[in-house]
């Protein structure tokens, strides 16, 4: 073999080795390794207590990892050892480099936290824990902590007024204290100077507006009625007349299946029973809607003192100034309930 021919063979061998090396690097780092099937993406939910094995096992359950050994090898090469909790979006045909970089850097995807239709602290804690990493007990603990709630100017009874029903972009692994801080910022933004002035003119504090709005919301879903109902209750507060709001009795009974409030219900000994105790209850009976809060702040000025659900049972109400007129409205409603066999 001539020297020239030997060099050619050597170059061919080196070229082959180089090509194989390039191919292996591509296979190891850049070739798609995760398939999510018919779905464009899936999510990994990584907890603080998870190990790397836990993360990869979940990845295999959520998708098809074509070459698990190559994923493990790249994780070692890139020194993926520290597990960062979070909600990670795994897209179809991601390669090992993309996955490991995402997990190693903690580059998680935010979610839309939905807060609506909440009646109690327990409801709120459960709904938050269903959407976030933290356990419901962590939220209940903060909601029930007098000293902690005092930092927001609240107490365990009024804690729900800090939360406004909406969707909030947050990270799945947000700490409960950080979530409360976020809600406090949203609360401050909502309670702008205009709203504060309207509350002071009633006069009610922001928290008291939230409490009254929770009752207004529970009374009616009709936006056009809410300012009228708010005005009626403000009339009663000004005159020192008990609110006698049926939704507060239902809340006091802790039985949300009640469709007909009876005399026995109105005798329940609870500070939330506004038949028995004058003024506002000590806290909201649900998280008030923005619609409800603004209805209180922009309440209708009228002379109504009494209200009763309409005999049509469509969620609307009849309003009255006198007791005699109210009795007529009440009879119509009670007859409608009797006709439909609604006894409780």
Description of the structure:
The chain is mainly alpha-helical. The protein is 50% helix and 11% strand. It has helices at 3-30, 52-62, 68-77, 96-105, 121-131, 136-143, 146-150, 176-190, 193-201, 206-219, 226-239, 246-253, 263-266, 290-297, 323-339, and strands at residues 32-35, 41-46, 64-65, 86-91, 94-95, 111-115, 166-170, 306-309, 317-320. The chain is elongated and about 120 Å long.
Mean pLDDT: 90
Low-confidence stretches: none
Distance between the termini: 105 Å
What kind of sheet is the major sheet? 3 strands, antiparallel
User: Helix count?
Assistant: 15
DSSP, total strands = 9
> Could you say which overall geometry the principal axes of the C-alpha atoms support?
elongated
Share of residues in strands: 5-15%
Estimated structural class: mainly alpha
As laid out across the biggest beta sheet, the strand order is 3-1-5
Helix content: 40-55%
The string of secondary-structure elements, in order, is: HEEHEHEEHEHHHEHHHHHHHEEH
Gyration radius over CA: 31 Å
């Amino acid at each position: 073999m001539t020297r020239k021919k030997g060099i050619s063979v050597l170059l061919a061998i080196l070229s082959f080795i180089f090509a194989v090396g390039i191919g292996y690097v591509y296979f190891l780092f850049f070739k798609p390794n995760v398939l999510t099937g018919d779905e464009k993406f899936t999510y990994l939910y990584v907890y603080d207590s998870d190990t790397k094995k836990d993360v990869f096992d979940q990845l295999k359950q959520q998708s098809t990892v074509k070459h698990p050994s190559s994923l493990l090898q790249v994780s070692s090469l890139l020194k993926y050892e520290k597990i960062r909790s979070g909600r990670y979006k795994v897209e179809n045909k991601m390669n090992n480099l993309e996955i490991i970089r995402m997990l190693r850097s903690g580059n998680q995807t935010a979610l839309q936290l939905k807060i609506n239709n909440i009646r109690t602290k327990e409801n709120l804690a459960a709904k938050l824990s269903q959407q976030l990493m933290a356990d419901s007990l962590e939220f209940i603990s903060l909601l029930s902590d007098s000293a902690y709630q005092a930092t927001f100017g609240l107490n365990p009874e009024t804690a729900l007024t800090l939360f406004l029903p909406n969707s909030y972009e947050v990270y799945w692994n947000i700490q409960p204290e950080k979530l409360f801080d976020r809600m406090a910022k949203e609360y401050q933004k909502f309670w702008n100077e205009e709203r504060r002035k309207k509350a002071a003119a009633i006069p009610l504090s922001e928290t008291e507006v939230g409490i009254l709005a929770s009752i207004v919301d529970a009374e009616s879903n009709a936006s056009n009625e809410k300012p009228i109902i708010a005005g009626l209750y403000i009339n009663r507060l000004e005159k020192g007349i008990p609110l006698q709001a049926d939704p507060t009795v239902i809340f006091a009974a802790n039985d949300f299946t009640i469709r007909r409030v009876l005399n026995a219900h109105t005798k329940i000994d609870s500070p939330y029973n506004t038949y028995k105790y004058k003024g506002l209850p000590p806290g909201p009976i649900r998280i008030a809607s923005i619609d409800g809060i603004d209805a209180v702040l922009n309440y209708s000025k009228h002379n109504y003192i009494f209200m009763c659900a309409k005999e049509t049972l469509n969620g609307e109400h009849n309003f009255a100034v006198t007791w005699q007129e109210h009795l007529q409205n009440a009879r119509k409603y009670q007859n409608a309930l009797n006709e439909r066999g609604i006894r409780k």
